[in-house]
Design brief:
By secondary structure, this protein is mainly β. The protein is 4% helix and 53% strand. It starts with a strand and ends in an 11-residue tail after the last strand. 37% of the residues are buried.
């Protein structure tokens, strides 16, 4: 099931986001060579009943991006997994952009607009945080943009 976080619905519509956005970053979490933006979280292999078995979990799962165009529009598509019910919040550079409940034994994809002010310095941090329940469990994250320029991991 895919949802758009209610807090972001008007902002996404106002930004003119369409389905024809460019994928500028993608992390298949739980697969070491396919999670270049991951900064915090622990690997876990979900039971065989889950289609997306490799995940990263923790009280906080953090991804960091660089090379953003401050004039472009960006949004994150986040696949959340739950083996038991949990409440999750999404933050960008410390600003809460949404909250979602994930039911037991489900995969839920949410979409959140990256606030323009977070793009001013060309980098941003996406945080998926446990509000209640055992943890935040994330299967994958895609960053989509009106720009075609690929995002990089944080500078070292």
């Amino acid at each position: 099931m895919q949802i758009v976080l209610p807090m972001m619905l008007a902002a996404i519509a106002a930004a003119g986001i369409t389905h024809a956005q460019n994928v500028v970053a993608e992390d298949d979490l739980g697969v070491a060579e396919k999670q270049p933006h991951l900064m915090a979280g622990e690997f876990y292999l979900m039971p065989a009943t889950f289609a997306d078995r490799t995940i990263v979990f923790g009280d906080v799962v953090t991804l960091s991006y660089s090379g953003a165009d401050s004039k472009a529009t960006y949004y994150a598509k986040i696949a959340l997994v739950a083996d038991s019910t949990r409440q999750i919040s999404i933050e960008v550079d410390g600003q809460k952009v949404g909250s979602v409940s994930v039911s037991s034994n489900s995969l839920r994809t949410v979409t959140a607009l990256i606030p323009k002010e977070a793009l001013a310095d060309g980098k941003f941090e996406l945080v998926v945080k446990k509000e209640s329940g055992p943890n935040a469990a994330v299967a994958n994250v895609k960053i989509l943009s009106s720009s075609s320029k690929k995002l990089g991991p944080p500078a070292k």
